[in-house]
Design brief:
Elements (H helix, E strand, L loop, with lengths): L1 H12 L60 H10 L11 H30 L18 E8 L5 E11 L6 E11 L10 E6 L9 E8 L3
């Protein structure tokens, strides 16, 4: 026991060892032969920070809608042309003088139109004969050939008359149709029949024709 106590006392009285000196850096800079210290390496300049992107320009203001072009009436156009006229003003005229000038201008325009139409006719060559006019004698009633489109009313039929004619100026065949009401005393005609009607005295508000015969029955 005594030996153990003595060992413990020696251990407590022994001074602590000094800490080991820090190791020198492994790679020290070697001094040049002349003895002058080597210049420290210049630190690379820090990369310049990229300039911050400029904030986007303010959103473009919406374009104002274009104003619609001003539409002037012929009277306003005449007023504007007179206001920009730089020549000498015309002498004052009376209402009768103005009417005379207007009639002369119209007559000159009519002459020019007639001359131009004559030139157009000459370019086209001889005009076509066209559809000859119907020969009618005084007191002879006119008759038409048409198709019955309705026979619902009693003693009355509705007839569609097809009209085919050639235009006097343009020589084009023009097709038209007219509807007439005809008196059918015995209700002979029916829808789809081809009938012949003749002019008559007024028989009602709309009837001015009378059935003559049924040319072709509907199939």
């Amino acid at each position: 026991m005594a030996d153990e106590e003595t060992k413990n006392e020696e251990a407590t009285e022994a001074p602590e060892e000094a800490p080991a000196e820090e190791e020198a850096p492994a790679a020290e800079e070697e001094a040049p032969a002349g003895g002058e210290p080597a210049p420290a390496e210049e630190e690379a300049p820090a990369e310049e920070e990229a300039p911050a992107e400029e904030a986007p320009a303010a959103a473009a203001e919406p374009a104002e809608p274009e104003e619609p072009e001003e539409v002037l009436t012929p009277k306003e156009l005449r007023k504007r042309s007179r206001s920009t006229h730089t020549g000498e003003a015309a002498p004052q005229r009376s209402a009768e003088e103005r009417a005379t000038e207007r009639s002369e201008r119209r007559r000159a325009k009519a002459t020019a139109r007639s001359r131009r139409r004559g030139q157009e006719r000459a370019k086209r060559g001889e005009p076509g004969q066209g559809t000859p006019e119907a020969e009618r004698e005084a007191g002879v009633r006119k008759s038409q050939l048409g198709t019955v489109v309705s026979d619902k009313a009693d003693k009355t039929i509705t007839v569609r008359v097809d009209i085919v004619r050639r235009h006097r100026r343009y020589e084009k065949v023009v097709r038209q149709s007219a509807t007439v009401h005809a008196h059918d005393e015995r209700n002979e005609a029916s829808a789809g029949d081809v009938v012949r009607v003749i002019e008559s005295r007024p028989l009602s508000k709309l009837k001015r024709w009378r059935l003559v015969e049924v040319v072709e029955k509907a199939r």
